Amino acid sequence: MSGYADFSEFYDALTRNVGYKERGEYIRGLLGKSGINGGLLLDLACGTGSLSTELSRAGFDVIGVDASDSMLCEAQKKAWESGREILFLCQKMQELDLYGTVNAAVCNLDGINHLTKEADVRETFRRVALFLEPGGVFVFDVNTIYKHSRIMADNVFVYDSDGVYCVWQNSPCEKTGTVQITLDFFKESGGVYSRSRESFCERAYDIGKIREWLTEAGFEKINVFDDMTMSDPRPDSQRVVFTAAKQDAAAEAAHNLD
């Protein structure tokens, strides 16, 4: 995976339409339905920390984890400027290692899709379960196979934002089921543009497989929703949201005996 050294500089400018406040409220609502309204929360693949900051404002004690030190520098700056005390750790998702357990975990905006090997997704789920309290809830979203095959496909997108012009090119690979994403950034300064490039892969996974891997990792009460709703996914859903609860202590012990 790329270190996102260049992407981190432009990430916030290119994701202004995400609506982090609304997404934070949506996640808080999903957690609240399971009785989780505070406590320690893990924000996995937290990027520049926009969601971490919103969830901190919502009353959670947030630990942000990301594999990119460049992204985490931006996140730390953002937390400091907003007056939020957030612990940030530089770790890969599949190598997650916390100091103790958390009440909830989230992973948003296709973080899981950046894991292009099934084994890494399964190991990530296992590690999240390991550091969740029994009954704790994991909320995450994924880009769907429909989005990868029909929307991203081999298309090119252009974004013209304040101070940066970005060309997004997709190159799908049927053999691996991945999409190679190449971002060319053109930054304007004093009437002169400088160019930089970032490249990484994403992979979409079958919803049924994801359910299977969550169960394998010790999760139960698995629900899937169309993004930002409480409705079932549609055939043309571009992003879906999973909620899954870690088995309680008794159920986990029985599971381990099987």
What's this model, at a glance?
Helix content is 33%, strand content 35%. By secondary structure, it is of the alpha/beta class. The relative contact order is 0.15.
Characterize the structure shown.
It is a single chain. The chain is α/β, with parallel strands linked by helices and 258 residues long. The chain has two domains: 7-144 and 205-257, Rossmann fold (3-Layer(aba) Sandwich); 147-203, S-adenosyl-L-methionine-dependent methyltransferases (N-terminal domain of TfIIb, Single Sheet). Helices cover 33% and strands 35% of the residues. The chain has helices at residues 7-14, 20-32, 50-57, 69-82, 118-130, 145-152, 207-217, 249-257, and strands spanning 39-44, 60-66, 87-90, 102-107, 132-143, 156-161, 164-173, 178-189, 192-203, 219-226, 239-246. Strands 3-2-1-4-5-11-10 form a seven-stranded mixed β-sheet, with helices on both faces. A four-stranded antiparallel β-sheet has the order 6-7-8-9. α3 links the parallel β1 and β2 (60-66). α2 (20-32) packs across α3 and α5 packs across α7. The longest helix is centred in the first third of the chain and has 14 residues, at 69-82. The radius of gyration is 18 Å and the shape is globular.
Number of E strands: 11
Estimated structural class: alpha/beta
Q: Going across the major beta sheet, what is the strand order?
A: 3-2-1-4-5-11-10
In angstroms, what is the radius of gyration? 18 Å
Shape verdict: globular
Q: N-to-C terminal Cα separation, in Å?
A: 36 Å
Please name the fourth-level CATH homologous superfamily of the largest domain: Vaccinia Virus protein VP39
What is the tally of helical segments?
Answer: 8
The CATH level-2 architecture of the largest domain is identified as 3-Layer(aba) Sandwich
Query: What count of domains describes the coordinates?
Result: 2
Largest sheet geometry: 7 strands, mixed
Which runs of at least 5 residues are low in confidence (pLDDT < 50)?
A: none
CATH T-level topology of the largest domain: Rossmann fold
Mean pLDDT: 91
Any idea of the CATH class of the largest domain?
Answer: Alpha Beta
Proportion of residues in helical segments: 25-40%
Q: Oligomerization state of this entry? A: single chain
Report the portion of residues in β strands. 35-45%
Order of helices and strands: HHEHEHEEHEHEEEEHEEH
